[in-house]
Each structure stands twice: as C-alpha cells, then as structure tokens.
Amino acid sequence: xxxxxxxxxxxxxxxxxxxxxxxxxxxxxxxxxxxxxxxxxxxxxxxxxxxxxxxxxxxxxxxxxxxxxxxxxxxxxxxxxxxxxxxxxxxxxxxxxxxxxxxxxxxxxx
Length: 110
Hints:
Blueprint: H1 11-21, H2 24-33, H3 38-59, H4 64-86, H5 97-105
C-alpha cells in the first residue's frame, strides 16, 4: 500500500494567515519575525499594503458603501493569506503589489 506524503502544516505555515489577520499590524510583526523566509516576508509586505488600503477605504466619506468595501478588501486579504498557507508553490499575485513585495525581499516569483 502506497503512503501519501502529507504536507507539513506547522507553525511556519500558519504565519501566512497570521500576517493578514490584523492587517498592517500583524504584517509588520511577521515581517520582522520571519527574517529567513523570503516568501513569508513578501506576504507580510502584501498584508501591510492591504491593511493600509483597507483603512483608507474605511475612512472614505461615502457612508455605508465604504464600510462594505473595506470589509471586502479585508476579506480578500484573508483569502490571500489562505492561498499562501495552502499552497507552498503558488501565490496569488496582485499586479504591481506582488512584484514590489517580491523585489523588496529578493524573492523570485514562480
């Protein structure tokens, strides 16, 4: 009977989701904690940027629409964290932002 290799889902993998949980705040913490993991640092930079975008959208004086839009941006960030957590070979690439984050930490996109 063949054994199926199970993916390691340890604490390092959970940090991808943690980076997006509190938006820019947890992104900054994860960025400094993960000094040796370029992919995790790239996702932390993306979490910081998405957190800043979320705050800007929440503060727009459009009323309830900006609240829902801010919530959608935040949920999209959590989705990006889940994608990074779930698949170690593939990242959800946002135009410009992912390229900038990858260049900043020296990560080569696949």
